[in-house]
């Protein structure tokens, strides 16, 4: 777990076996990342691996914000699969699954149908009120406390409102705009942008790329060959992160991934992977080793990222859980235009002895990577698109 790849929003745990008490989000993050870490430790085709994977699928599907009938039917199948592997684990290890949260699987689908998705309910709201009430109670004389606590609560609420107004005014003054005019972010056509800019240098002086596990000595020649077909290179500027925007396939919102390319990010190397468009079947991944903006003699700029391609590979050892994908990282480097990059992807090293540079695809970081496929457009959706095209695109000739 200490060597597990880092990812935004996913808590990185170094000592999971010594955790005795923590919050639920930490346990949820451990659930998301535990399978690649234990699959080679347990015996081959161990039912515990399949049980954890079944619970991953059940838990991730249950937490989605949009639950049409198709997803509810898939959730019901995941629950049946989870119950099957719980029975197998109970027979082999004597594990007792008789506890309250386990019973939620039996009525979860019906609860979603009648009350809505699970994000509308939580046990966390109201927990902070107990601390506020205890603090107010300690300020009373412990006699006729109701009226005293009401006055203390009113005072605290007034102080909080005054503090919020002062903070908002200070923030507007720092931005140089004290009026109440709403501010809108600049919208661009690109689905990505660089961040953490470095010093602009010539390509000859850019140095040697040293991503994890590989060294590129002739970067200048590789970069020039990449853009020689279009323009001669003049100057390049490296960046340490990129913001990738994409549309969620879960609820169609606009989301953002932050991928990093940094030799020392909080004391550790950080070279993230990305999913990009290619002509090859299936999904194509690459681990980026640099993020570059090249300024050409014509004053035009191109943005690219050198990286190693990651192709699918069959794993012959260990336990292949449902949806398991193993990919091998190539030793050769190639350059990729940022226009082809879709979003970030989390791949963590597979501890397989004598198998080269293998990585597991972690599809549990968000609903868009689980299941790791794009939705299939049904015939009703296609007919609807044709009708809209006929109504709004074709001119009306009377």
N-to-C order of helices and strands: HHHHHHHEHEEEEEEEEEEEH
Number of beta-strand segments: 12
Q: For the CA atoms, what is the radius of gyration?
A: 26 Å
Low-confidence stretches: 178-188, 372-381
Domain module count: 3
Largest sheet: 12 strands, antiparallel
Binned, the helix content reads 25-40%
Separation of the first and last Cα atoms:
68 Å
Work out the strand percent: 15-25%
Mean pLDDT: 78
- Shape, please? globular
Number of separate helices:
9
SS-based structural class? Answer: alpha+beta
Please give a structural write-up.
The chain has 398 residues and is of the alpha+beta class. The chain is built from 9 helices and 12 strands. Strands 1, 2, 3, 4, 5, 6, 7, 8, 9, 10, 11 and 12 form a 12-stranded antiparallel sheet that branches. Strand 7 and strand 8 form a beta hairpin. Helix 6 packs across helix 7.
Topology:
Layout: H1 24-33, H2 35-38, H3 47-62, H4 69-93, H5 100-115, H6 127-138, H7 145-174, E1 192-197, H8 219-227, E2 233-247, E3 254-265, E4 268-271, E5 273-276, E6 284-288, E7 291-296, E8 301-313, E9 326-337, E10 341-345, E11 347-349, E12 358-361, H9 379-393
Antiparallel strand pairs: 1-2, 2-3, 2-7, 3-4, 5-6, 5-10, 6-8, 7-8, 8-9, 9-12, 11-12
Keywords:
398 residues; alpha+beta; twelve-stranded antiparallel β-sheet; 9 helices; 34% helix; 22% strand; globular
Short description:
With 398 residues, the chain is α+β, with helices and mostly antiparallel strands. The chain is 34% helix and 22% strand.
């Amino acid at each position: 777990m200490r060597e597990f790849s880092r990812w935004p929003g996913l808590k990185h745990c170094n000592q999971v076996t010594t955790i005795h008490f923590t919050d639920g989000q930490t346990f949820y993050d451990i659930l998301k990342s535990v399978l690649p870490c234990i699959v080679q430790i347990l015996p081959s085709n161990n039912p515990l691996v399949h049980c954890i994977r079944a619970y991953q699928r059940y838990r991730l599907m249950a937490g989605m914000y949009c639950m049409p009938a198709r997803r509810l039917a898939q959730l019901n199948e995941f629950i049946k699969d989870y119950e099957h592997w719980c029975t197998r684990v109970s027979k082999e290890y004597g594990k007792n699954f008789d506890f309250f949260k386990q019973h939620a699987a039996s009525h979860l689908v019906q609860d979603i149908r009648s009350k809505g998705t699970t994000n509308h309910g939580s046990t966390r709201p109201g927990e902070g009120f107990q601390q506020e009430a205890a603090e107010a109670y300690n300020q009373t004389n412990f006699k006729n406390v109701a009226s005293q606590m009401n006055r203390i609560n009113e005072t605290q609420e007034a102080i909080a409102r005054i503090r919020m107004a002062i903070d908002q005014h200070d923030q507007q003054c720092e931005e140089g705009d004290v009026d109440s005019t709403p501010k809108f972010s600049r919208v661009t056509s690109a689905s990505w942008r660089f961040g953490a800019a470095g010093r602009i240098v010539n390509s000859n002086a850019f140095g040697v790329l040293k991503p994890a596990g590989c060294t590129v000595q002739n970067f200048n020649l590789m970069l020039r060959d990449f853009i020689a077909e279009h323009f001669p290179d003049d100057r390049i500027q490296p960046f340490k992160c990129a913001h990738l925007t994409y549309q969620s396939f879960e609820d169609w919102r606009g989301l953002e991934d932050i991928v990093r390319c940094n030799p020392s990010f909080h004391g550790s190397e950080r070279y993230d992977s990305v999913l990009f468009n290619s002509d090859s079947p299936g999904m194509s991944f690459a681990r980026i080793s640099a993020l570059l903006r090249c300024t050409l003699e014509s004053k035009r700029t191109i943005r690219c990222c050198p990286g190693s391609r990651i192709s699918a590979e069959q794993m012959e050892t260990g336990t292949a859980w449902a949806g398991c994908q193993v990919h091998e990282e190539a030793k050769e480097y190639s350059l990729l235009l940022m226009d082809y990059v879709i979003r970030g992807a989390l791949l963590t090293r597979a501890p397989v002895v004598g198998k080269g540079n293998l990585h597991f695809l972690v599809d549990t970081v968000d609903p868009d990577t689980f299941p790791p496929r794009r939705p299939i457009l049904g015939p009703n959706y296609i007919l609807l698109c044709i009708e809209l095209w006929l109504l709004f695109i074709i001119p009306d000739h009377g």
